[in-house]
Known about the structure:
This protein folds into three domains: 3-213, Class II aldolase/adducin N-terminal domain (L-fuculose-1-phosphate Aldolase); 230-390, L-fuculose-1-phosphate Aldolase (3-Layer(aba) Sandwich), CATH 3.40.225; 401-580 and 613-639, Rossmann fold (3-Layer(aba) Sandwich). By secondary structure, it is α/β, with parallel strands linked by helices. The chain has a seven-stranded mixed sheet, sandwiched between helices. The protein has a seven-stranded parallel sheet with strand order 14-13-12-15-16-17-18, sandwiched between helices. 44% of the residues lie in helices and 15% in strands. The mean pLDDT is 94.
Amino acid sequence: MNEVGGVLDECVRYSRLIGADPALVLHGGGNSSVKTTRRDITGRDVDVLFVKGSGAEMATIDAANFTPLALPRLHDLLELESLSDAEMMRQLAAAKVDPEAPTPSVETLLHAFLPFPAVLHSHADVIVTLTNVANGEQVVGDVFGETVVVVPYVMPGFELAREVRRIWPEQADEETRGIVLLNHGLFTFGTTSREAYERHVDLIAIAARWLDETGPTSDQEPPELPPVLRTDLAELRREVSGAASRPLVMQRHSDATVRRFVARPDLASLAGRGPLTPDHVIRTKPLPLVGRDVAGFAEAYSAYFARHAPHARTEPTMLDPAPRIILDQEFGMLTVGASAHDAQVAADIYHHTMPVLERVEERLGGYVALSAERLFEFEYWELEQAKLRRAGEPPPLAGTVALVTGAASGIGRACAQALLARGSAVAGLDISPDVETSFDGPAWKGLVADVTDEHSVGAALDRSVETFGGVDIAVVAAGIFGRSAPIAELGEEQWRSVLSVNVDSVAMLLRDLHPLLARSAIGGRVVVIGSKNVAAPGRGAAPYSASKAALVQLSRVAALEWADDGIRVNLVHPDAVFDTGLWTPELIAERASRHGVDVETYKRRNLLRTTITSEDVARAVVALCDDTFPATTGAQIPIDGGNERVV
């Protein structure tokens, strides 16, 4: 193993240990570096700083996520008296040894200045607990003595690096083990990444012991929250999305930490103090909404922007004024984001914020965050605004919420997958337990439910709305074919079982979905999976053919009745979709033999001589769910390659 590989691999290892603990680092926060020499293409050894790339996750970081930069050039930049953020990033890009390496951390110059080979940085909860008080510098001194350098809050980047450079000779000595940045976090360093990590852990342990000696926070189990109507959550999500002028995902949280916090008599005061560290403001906004006055929050945020924008270093573009954290004594905590991932990030951050707020308030004399001016400075930081400009257009269904029945396999699964790919959060219902693990990630919620059981479906709808905030899109794909039999041999149970799944359950589902779709952030959209058998029934398929025909009429009536609510209802009629659970290899072979052709020919028994897949159906479904056909409702679209009996 070469020298670079050895020290960099060690840095990766200890970075991951820091990143694996959410009490230290959350969602792209923290950074790390190691200084070494690297032989260039000319054979010369050059001094290089490997620093974490911007946005990389510490918990999963690898060597490719580190950016190598020429260390002498970084030292030259530190000699400058001033350097704008944009110019700093240009100069850092120019200092990269590998042009294809990621954008380096904004803290690169601070890492370069510190006179140690290895550096680790986190936003540890216990550290910000000590610093977010009126006398933070004194508290830090009481806890750590002279083993740390204490730095007042300064904007990250060049200014912070210069401030540390100014303070370092005044405070640092041979006993220095770290730097505490007030309202920000902790830096530790050493001759190796292991030493930097051990110092990090030691300092955090010292802080934790000191806080424990001040007395623990209450661990009493708080009372349960009252039941919440799913329509109330959907209405609140519609208001929040309206404030943002785009659909947003909204998650509900009612765990013990949340229940204890929202029950506090000083909730409004404590929640109004500000975030643990300014890094969080990008995800949570400066303050949460306490209560449900979304319009009032948006008005206050707009006033906050108007008050501080004239003093910004560069002309800022106002972000949407919708809240990202909502605290309510009945609802608990609601977190909001442009995607399910963003809503979960906000939840993770505030779950760490609440205990710190309580502990500081109760044990350290009162929580004090940065001023609104400082928070605005970070929220509208030139570098963050540039990221927004580079982000480009979101996926076409970003922020929307879809519900898909029959989502564990076949057409339902393909529709769920297509909706996820276009940015929608998806709740998938199916009787199969496989639905729970059909897809990974926060945008997927698989729920086991029997569509013929109203209580089962109602519980699934409740969980869907608590997970994502409402329903904008419904894809009704659950259905069964039943056993083939001529009418003369048809049993009542055989008849009823097919109609129960294919028609009765849909009628009840649409009934329960209507109040949610009517509160959609985009106008509700429903797509029902019909069948070629509606226009061209087959022998031995009376229950299936009749149920699908009835389903068409049900859907047409829904289109008539729901148009006033802005809800579109359309159908697609697939045929010969052989990659679904309706078609077993044995059944396909039997049907091919009956028609006197081989299996491949039978699969292409349509005018276009093409194979129809679940993905083909899903593409049509998504087109009816997005804005491809905004003026279409009550339509029926065949996805069958052209069927002579239908055409």
